[in-house]
Amino acid sequence: ESRFGNFLVAGVTETMLEALSQLGIEWFLDGTTLTVTGTGLKPWRASDTPIDCRNSGMTIRTLAGALAATNTPAVLDGSDGLRRRPMGRVVEPLAAMGADIETAAGGYAPIRIGENKTGGLKGLEIDLPVASAQVKTALLLAGLGGLAPTIIHEPGPSRDHTERIFAQMGIDLDVQPGVVRLNPPEQPLTPLRFTIPGDVSSAAFLIVAALITPNSEIRLQGVGLNPTRTGLIDALLSMGADIEILSGEPRAGEPVGDLIVRSSKLKAAVIKGDIVVRMIDEFPVFAVAAVHAEGSTVVQDAEELRYKETDRIQVLVEEFCKLGVQIEAQDDGFTIQGGLPYQGGEVSARGDHRLGMALAVLSLGAESPVTLSDAEIIAESFPGFVDQLKHLGAEIKSV
After folding, report:
1. Residues of the chain with pLDDT > 70: what percent?
2. Which of 99, 238, 293, 365 pairs as cysteine with 266 (C-beta 3.0–4.6 A)?
3. For residue 108, what are the β-bridge partners?
4. Nearest-5° angle of CA 116, CA 56, CA 164?
5. Tell me: the pLDDT tens digits for 64-112?
6. What's the distance, CA 38 to chain centroid?
């Protein structure tokens, strides 16, 4: 048994848990404490019906690697939005390892995984064209069932939670800048017992809300401060944000601390290069900070935003423009002219939880009320978001 405290009960995690149930994995949720009974690397229960990964790219990609490792036949599918996200970047290297796996036409979901009758997965050495923690995790999971080492080269530093967790489980890993080598385990993996740090991607919305709201000061407790995830904090600090970081005790190899955030006068910045990967999920709310920063903020090298739950560059620009924000899209990012007033109006989350929360934070600085439709999608990753904003003093009404 592995046991995790502070487990997030939300749409994205419920999707994974339901998928595990369909595959015969036993788990028990007591409030926010999750217990999972491991079965080792033997095959899981084959599913007679497709596994619905809904809108979760993390679920479909990591399950593809795990199913390949355990040699479990299945079909992975999801929402229309998930079917528009590229899956070839995961499926092609898994096929090169010997997995019986294929996508639908064009490299999209559904993903079909058949029984591998060749005697096991081969080792793999691969250069990833795009730094992606989801792809890396899928391949490392598959590597657990390999007959030889799996070696992954990345063009930049993606988040490394998987490597830290694997090390806690006794897996033989060699992690160097830009490369990870996994040697297949010869012994059963060590179960895990720890409290999950607070999610910095969720904290990001409260951080920016405090920065742009006059006379604000908040303290966020127990936030995960893994350096592969703190690109937004680094970007905001470079823009003049008043963020105080208080280090705490690490959890399962992850640095943790409290953040004290105070309202600040921000200045514009150019965001590009390696920091983009370290804040890839935070760009919707970073854009809110840029709206309140003096000058022209430019985001480059972020084409990956077009392959998230939505085309986050396009929908971000469209929705921000509805409130009069001066924002323009580029192929790999956007430009925002900040420090200017903007009005209220009607906007939509467009089926994207992070866009919905970013629009809610943006509304804090509008000259008149903002009405946000499709707001229920926020519960995908932060069910208590609206209550937290109200607790901090925001005026929010359901309509």
Report:
1. 100
2. 293
3. 104
4. 75
5. 999 999 999 999 999 999 999 999 999 999 999 999 999 999 999 999 9
6. 24
Handedness of CA 197, 202, 204, 206 (dihedral sign): negative
* pLDDT band at residue 399 using 50, 70 and 90 as cut-offs: confident
* Burial (CB count <10 Å: 0-12, 13-18, 19+), residue 370: buried
Predicted confidence at residue 118, as pLDDT, reads 81
Strand (E) or helix (H) holding 321 = helix 312-321
Nearest to 23, CA basis, from 69, 72, 65, 64: 72
Contact indicator for 105, 115 with CB cutoff of 8 Å: no
Can you name the residues that pair with 271 across neighbouring β-strands? 299
Cα torsion 302, 306, 310, 315: sign: positive
Euclidean distance between CA atoms 391 and 317, whole angstroms: 29
DSSP conformational letter for 104:
E
* SS3 state of residue 278: helix
119 has a pLDDT exceeding 80: no
Q: Read off the tokens for 265.
A: 């006068």
As a whole number of angstroms, the distance between CA 162 and CA 198 comes to 16
| C-alpha–C-alpha distance, residues 51 and 17, integer Å | 11
**CA–CA separation, 30 and 33 (whole Å):** 5
Q: Which residues are catalytic, by number?
A: 281
Write down the pLDDT at residue 156. Answer: 87
Evaluate whether 238 touches 267 at the Cβ level (below 8 Å).
Answer: no
How is residue 306 annotated by DSSP? G
Model pTM greater than 0.90? yes
Facing residues of 259 across strands? 220, 245
Residue 64: count of CB within 10 angstroms of its CB: 29
Short-list 5, 8, 4, CA closest to 201: 8
**Residue type, position 99, single letter:** A
Contacts of 138 (CB under 8 A, 6+ apart): 61, 62, 64, 65, 66, 90, 94
Q: Would you state the pLDDT for residue 281?
A: 95
Cis peptide bond N-terminal to 110, omega within 30: yes
- 370 contacts 376 by C-beta, under 8 angstroms: no
Cβ–Cβ under 8 Å, residues 95 and 101: yes
